[in-house]
Amino acid sequence: MRNPLWAAAWVVILIATGCKNNNAADDSSEAGLSEVTTPVTVTNGSRQSIKDSTVLSAVSTYLLSADIKTNINGYIKSSGLHLGDAVAKGQTLFVLETKESKSLGNTIDKLDSSFKFSGISTIKSTASGYITMLNHQVGDYVQDGEILASITDKNSFGFILNLPFEYRALVHLNQAVDIRLPDGSSTSGTVNRIMPQMDSASQTQQVFVKTTTGNIPSGLIASVVLTKDLQSGFTLPKDCVFADDSQQNFWVMKLINDSTAVKIPVNKGLENNSSVVITAPSFRPDDRFVIEGGYGLSDTAKIDVRQK
Length: 308
Description:
This protein is mainly beta and 308 residues long. The protein folds into three domains: 37-51 and 231-305, conserved putative lor/sdh protein from methanococcus maripaludis s2 fold, CATH 2.40.420.20; 53-61 and 156-230, Elongation Factor Tu (Ef-tu), domain 3 (Beta Barrel); 66-152, CATH 2.40.50.100. It has two helices and 21 strands. A six-stranded antiparallel beta barrel has the order 2-11-14-13-12-15. A four-stranded antiparallel sheet has the order 3-10-8-5, with no helix packed on it. The protein is elongated. The protein starts with a helix and ends with a strand.
């Protein structure tokens, strides 16, 4: 009788020990799961303005040019000009000598020095700009009214923008616009005039944007930025805003403490390449949001904030 009783007692002890170990293992697993955290980096938002803009091409040009003409028949005695030279208004460009002066000037002076016959004529620049054409050189014989050179009018420099009619409401006289140059730099311009004609093929209207920036060559293709809309409000980096597959529902992961982030649905406003305006709900500038590591996080997720 003793042996069966001892065997039964040992069975009971082993079962009790196994149950205790299983419970301890389950408790340990649950504790391990509850301690799972996701490493993230966080950022703050700010209040700023975001523009919705459109970018159109524009070509630099001089609207006006001046032709330098002779006022006598004669020879070009001196000049010293070269293509591309900058000239100022009133600067002497050519010195002309009449055919008679070249033939008889010294003889007349010898006969009567008081006569002061020179036959010399100076041609001056009528505008400030650059020499774009030279038709004659020193020694050439020219006739009255003949074109010696052409000068661009520096004050007429700007960009011609071909504006689609659908954007006509975005442009008005004396409007300030941004001009982006191909080298990455930018300058400012002002809408100086709007031409009254439309191109029937492209349905575009020419707009002249004046700029005072120097060292821009004629014929350069640049970009003019036109603002379509402007919105101010609380903005976040675009990486802070998450969306579902349909791109209809948006949310952010906002920190409620150093170890927990909650999912908050948001409404978006205007956005650019880096930021987006949050129209609802309202947030404070000191609120913190997950910017890296937040994709796939559930509501009330445990997080581990890492320094970026």
